[in-house]
Write a structure and sequence with these properties.
Layout lengths: L2 H28 L3 H19 L1 H15 L4 E2 L5 E2 L9 H12 L5 E7 L2 E7 L6 E7 L6 H18 L7 E5 L3 E6 L4 H4 L16 H14 L4 E4 L4 H12 L9 E2 L5 H11 L8 H9 L4 H9 L1 E2 L2 E2 L7 E3 L2 E3 L3 E2 L2 E2 L11 H7 L2 E2 L4 H9 L7 H7 L6 H15 L3 H4 L1 E4 L17 E5 L2 H10 L11 E3 L12 H8 L1 H4 L2 E5 L27 H10 L6 H12 L4 E7 L1 H4 L4 H6 L2 E10 L11 E9 L12 E6 L5 E7 L1
Length: 637
């Protein structure tokens, strides 16, 4: 019998003795009145029933008192019985007790109310990286209400970028605790429909309820819920394996798919200014397609000061950069060092564990577009086509051209970015990819054999809005020059959506985004023909394709302004194509797209040999939600 059991038995015996005294007193009183005696006997019978359950009631009473005092009792080294949290009256008491019961204080510390985040668990080491952001409520509350409040609260901390986000978010009340991986909430953070000024604690406001609905839909498949009374062992194992993974062995911060853009922005401020390259040479690098992010990737994808990926544009060699190219007459066969002897570089990377875990490496390489400063990304208009829409667009190409379309048609992506639109296509003999950015071309070549099925000779740098078709690879140029082969050409693109005018333009200034569309040669060529539509980069792509590649097919992602906007009236008069098939998907599923509007994928057969197609008065498009589920058809006018 354990010590606790003995105490329970002794307490029960004491209560039993007290009950006996009550019974004796009842017998004495019964002599006074027969009626009172009968009543006493009835009460004695009820008392006996209570006594039969006294041990159970006493045990629960003791548990409640000990929990109110924030106390837990260990029976052995591996298993702990945790008391009931139900009667805790203050949230601060609940938070402190949950931390004490489930989080290893040798590995972490509890930091309440940082940036209004209720419950912050940070590493106990030198760096004290945050491991968990949480929301706590006494009593029992709806889990998705709590997550909605937490996400509204922590968005401001995430945006400031002073603190790296943790691997998990968590919410708990007196009965249960739930966790979600942080990266699963990132789509919410870029959702322009969310009002981030909504009061986090106002659960009944329309903005809160709209966001809660999105969060429940997003997280319901990724949430892990544990009940304190029944999942004690599983909960401790989950925290140990997921929250504390690596904290004892390594005090450095991990680079993950959640935080590497934030780390890049810090690197721009702390390391880049010390790289021993003159301003003129930096400008020359930009012209050659070498971005700041290429130096950062060299740093990140390294171990012990040397690159682990050898086909990057910039390599790291003994903690210095190496570039084996001729730029303005300087051959960088020697190391590119630092103006401060590498002090800032070492201090910065002493905070982070390089390289990223293998599970993140390919993702980070694929997402080179996230390592371009935001102002440059806006001008280039580059972003990543979500895999769900890549797959869906290829389904529609098969519907339009038959199941053997990859063998029977040539495909050219002339705004390829990092090439993901061509992922999954099998016949590399018929595939071409080009892009304005030399760094993107280098990334595509890195990915050949690792997800992209292309010939290296079919991947080339080409400014579609400026360069002459005479500079195209000979094989592609011969296809374009042959009218019959050109009728088997599909220009398959997700062109940039940047425009000369922007909602960000200050009202009344009439200033446009500098050089977005007006700097391109084709702008002058088509501005009188298509009018105000010439301010849109994708419209310039479409017009040059229709004009120079007559008889071919155009399969393009874009906004639907060219279908229904009054600003595109002249465009519709000039664009000659016959609509084939298409669908609509929401803009919020795309990176680097501001605003909430439909994005269409439409397939057009372009006019040829005098066969002019008038722009249709309407088109019928299939509509899909953010998860790719079909909705009723929509007519775009």
């Amino acid at each position: 019998m354990t010590g606790v059991s003995r105490k329970v038995l002794e307490a029960s015996q004491e209560l039993s003795g007290e009950s006996q005294e009550v019974s004796e007193a009842s017998q004495e009183l019964s002599g006074t009145s027969q009626e009172l005696s009968r009543t006493s006997q009835e009460l004695s019978g009820e008392s006996q029933k209570v006594l039969e359950k006294s041990q159970e009631l006493l045990e629960k009473s003791q548990k409640t008192k000990k929990r109110q005092a924030g106390y837990s009792k260990k029976f052995d080294k591996t298993y702990t019985v945790f008391m009931d949290y139900a009667n805790i009256q203050k949230e601060e008491t609940l938070k402190a007790q949950v931390f004490e019961d489930f989080f290893d204080q040798d590995l972490c510390t509890y930091k309440p109310n940082i940036d209004n985040i209720d419950f912050v668990v940070a590493g106990a080491g030198l760096m004290q990286d945050h491991l968990l952001w949480g929301e706590a409520k006494k009593g029992e509350r709806d889990m998705f209400d709590m997550f909605t409040q937490l996400i509204l609260t922590c968005k401001k901390t995430y945006d400031k970028g002073d603190i790296l986000p943790p691997p998990f978010l968590g919410c708990f009340d007196a009965a249960k605790i739930a966790f979600v991986p942080f990266h699963h909430i990132l789509p919410i953070f870029v959702d322009p429909a969310v009002n981030w000024n909504a009061t986090p604690s106002n659960y009944l406001s329309p903005d809160f309820l709209k966001l809660r609905k999105k969060i429940e839909k997003l997280l319901e498949k990724n949430i892990a819920v544990f009940h304190f009374d029944s999942d004690t062992i599983e909960l401790k194992e989950f925290i140990q394996k997921n929250i504390f993974s690596g904290t004892r062995e390594n005090a450095k911060s991990r680079i993950t798919k959640n935080n590497f853009p934030h780390i890049f922005y810090k690197w721009l401020k702390e390391v880049k200014p010390t790289i021993n390259i003159s301003p003129d040479e930096w400008r020359e690098f930009k012209k050659q397609g070498i971005e700041d992010g290429d130096f950062f990737r060299a740093d990140m994808m390294s171990r012990d000061g040397n690159s682990i990926v050898k086909n990057l544009k910039i390599l790291l060699d003994r903690d210095n950069y190496r570039l084996e190219e001729d730029l303005r007459g300087r051959f960088y066969f020697t190391d590119i060092d630092f103006t401060d002897g590498g002090g800032a570089y070492r201090r910065f990377w002493n905070r982070y564990d390089r390289p990223p875990a293998e599970e993140y490496q390919q993702y980070i390489i694929d997402r080179r577009d996230l390592l371009v400063p935001q102002n440059i990304r806006e001008v280039k208009g580059s972003f990543y086509t979500p895999a769900i829409w890549v797959e869906k667009s290829q389904e529609y190409l098969e519907k339009a051209f038959g199941e053997n379309w990859q063998d029977e048609y040539y495909i050219w992506d002339c705004a390829a970015g990092t090439g993901n639109l061509l992922a999954g296509l099998a016949n590399k003999d018929n595939l071409w990819a080009s892009d304005i950015d030399a760094g993107n071309i280098n990334t595509i070549r890195e990915l050949i054999g690792g997800g992209l099925n292309l010939w290296t000779s079919h991947v080339f740098q080409f400014n579609f809005l400026n360069d002459s078709f005479d500079t195209l690879p000979a094989e592609l140029k011969s296809i374009i020059a042959d009218p019959e082969k050109r009728r088997k050409l599909i220009v398959y693109i997700n062109p940039p959506y940047a425009e000369a005018t922007s909602a960000k333009t200050v009202s009344g200034t009439w200033h446009n985004k500098a050089e977005v569309s007006t700097k391109h040669a084709v702008h002058n060529e088509y501005k009188n023909t298509i009018g105000r539509a010439a301010n849109e980069l994708y419209a310039l792509f479409m017009m040059r394709i229709a004009d120079k590649l007559s008889g071919a097919y155009l399969a393009a992602f874009s906004t639907l302004k060219y279908v229904n906007s009054s600003n595109f009236a002249k465009f519709r008069e000039s664009f000659s194509g016959q609509f084939q098939k298409g669908f609509i998907c929401p803009s919020v599923t795309f990176d680097n797209v501001s605003g909430k509007f439909p994005i269409g994928f439409l397939i057009w057969k372009l006019s040829y040999n005098g066969y002019d197609f008038k722009f249709p008065k309407s088109v019928k498009l299939d509509v899909f939600d953010a998860e790719g589920k079909r909705a009723p058809k929509k007519k775009g006018f």
